[in-house]
Amino acid sequence: MIQFMRRALELATLGRGQVSPNPMVGCVIEHNGRIIGEGWHQRYGEAHAERNAIRSVKPEDEHLLPESTAYVTLEPCSHYGKQPPCADFLIERRIKRVVCCNDDPNPLVGGQGFAKLRRAGIEVETGILNELGRELNARFFTFFERERPYIILKWAETTDGFIAAAGGRPVKISGDLSHRIVHRWRSEEDAILVGTNTARNDNPRLNTRLWPGKNPTRLVLDRNLALSPDLYLLDGTQPTIVYHQVEGQVPTKHSAIIHSFAHSLIDVLQDLHQRRIQSVLVEGGTTLLQSFMDAGFWDEMRVFRSRTMLGEGIKAPAVRGQLIQRDLIGDDELSIYRP
């Protein structure tokens, strides 16, 4: 049983960065210890894992479905969205048994998928590798259970603990391989956030030009709308939301840019929740990163430490949380922390 669920979890990860705001889901169809079908949710709006897995079953094996078990990483959906209910499809194909990691926290499902399967006479077992399933879809669970996006704080610092040169002047700290990894991370998250100082000093593009993947929605905190319209952030090339505290109508020359009034980080996170943005990569400076830490709004910290020495400049935030992983990325050390 465990090996089939592990395979379903492995398949689910293949949808990373492609299925949000849906969860990553994998499915394995097993008969008498043999996998006869497998699939995953590949892209938002397209077929879900259960349909892909059953459709992968060879014609000569389809007669085995009524005696087979479907191993699914998340409760099969019971409602119509971009796709029809997966619970109905499993019932139609007369699957004998469904084994699952997690209940779906989405109130549109929330146990109704399992209930529908049981009413149809299908055996249901839940909670298998539950923690691994929650880890896989941490963004999805955070979004529904905490009603905010999953927040990743990321920065690079020198050996002597600086995040930028004196006056906030940008300086290359981490290596090329680390930069490429950051662009991969951007492709995997819904949005990326910076503050006014980073936008002004670094003039970042916040796209995925070093990795083949989708660009995240760009978010910038610009309290007084003081940023120059000539910045890359405001060039209209990808969806951008500017959070500010300026009363009244705010003109914009780009339809891709949304202006939203927000008094605090809580307002920002509530707005992002309403927009169904499930994850945010925060790439700001020390002040912005520290504000998320102080408010307790973070789920991961990803910190690159290089061999570079600056001697003076802007101090990096003090790391918090528990170290869960440490790797060498070229000449850089990457440490990942959780609260």
Automatic annotation (TrEMBL):
One of its GO terms (biological process) is riboflavin biosynthetic process. Pfam families: dCMP_cyt_deam_1 (PF00383), RibD_C (PF01872). Gene3D superfamilies: Cytidine Deaminase, domain 2 (3.40.140.10), Dihydrofolate Reductase, subunit A (3.40.430.10). NADP(+) binds at A156, T198, D202, G285, T286, T287, L288, L289, Q290, S291. Its EC number is 3.5.4.26, 1.1.1.193. The active site is at E50 (proton donor). Transmembrane segments: none annotated. Its cofactor is Zn(2+). Pathway: Cofactor biosynthesis; riboflavin biosynthesis; 5-amino-6-(D-ribitylamino)uracil from GTP: step 3/4; Cofactor biosynthesis; riboflavin biosynthesis; 5-amino-6-(D-ribitylamino)uracil from GTP: step 2/4. NCBIfam families: eubact_ribD. This is Riboflavin biosynthesis protein RibD. It comes from Spirosoma aureum.
